[in-house]
Amino acid sequence: MEDEPTGPGPYPVRGNGCYRGRFAPSPTGPLHAGSLVAALASWLDARAHGGQWLVRIEDVDTPRCVPGADRLILEQLGRCGLVSDEPVIHQSACGGFYREALERLVQSGQAYPCACSRRDIEQAMAMAGQVRERHQAPVYPGTCRPERGGLGGREPRAWRFRVPDGPAAEVSWTDRRLGNQIQNVATEVGDFVLRRADGLWAYQLAVVVDDARQGITHVVRGEDLTDNTGRQILLQQALGLARPHYLHTPLVLAADGQKLSKQNGARALDLREPGRALCEAARALGLPPRGGDLTRMLAGWTSDWNQRFGGGAISGAGAG
Prior knowledge:
- The structure is a single chain.
- By secondary structure, this protein is of the alpha/beta class.
- 32% of the residues lie in helices and 14% in strands.
- The strands form four sheets. A three-stranded parallel β-sheet has the order 1-2-3.
- Strand 1, helix 1 and strand 2 (52-57) form a beta-alpha-beta unit.
- Helix 1 crosses helix 9 (294-309), helix 3 packs across helix 6 and helix 6 (203-213) packs across helix 7 (229-239).
- It is elongated, with a radius of gyration of 20 Å.
């Protein structure tokens, strides 16, 4: 399948009531048990709503990508009966769209260049008496904001989104599984990166632009990504984009209690028996066991999902 062309252009206008969901893996290796849970959940939600399910390869972080992993992921999904309803797009082919979005944010005063290194940020936090929790990214203190002197004669390293001041930095939304959520992006994250010091596009900007371009109405993904939602909603507001509905699925944990991931050695899916792998994924989602061929199993779980999370007619995106 071919990628969409690179370059700026209008976002698609979808008809009211058209559900569009997606699964967006990073090609840093083959799918594992945890990623199959997210893929199955997003597929079931789309089918329960009578909607479309898309696959997007999030290869914007090119140094971490493994050659051929994208093709392997699509093959693994296909063996499980999970096939994209539209041609698969790759983020690496979409730089023009991200550049256009950044330019819009710069022109509206909602993005600015930053010269700070991680060490600079940590030193600024220490001087302000702020303590960073272990495994937590430092909260950017706004050192390079224009009203604070900007770059101060230094060379720009990255571009950051200017998080609104005051109450506007507090973002609330309703997660379809987790319930009401609230995050103060200013105090918990700070002005976040849109384009990295190495010239690569940051995940937050890329995912917001791609969801809008693909007309995504519902995002179903792992619970570890819940923390990203506040930042993405702020970007959607700044760019005048619709807010999707969000549902974050339970995580599959390794033996040590950590999230199962490629970074901690999660094994690739054994798809000699795709039905067994799907049953394990369904169990992680709290769905009952199913027998028969893949078609019957997926149909049964779609019915189960519909009873649990609803389907059929959908209301306008952006609630919460």
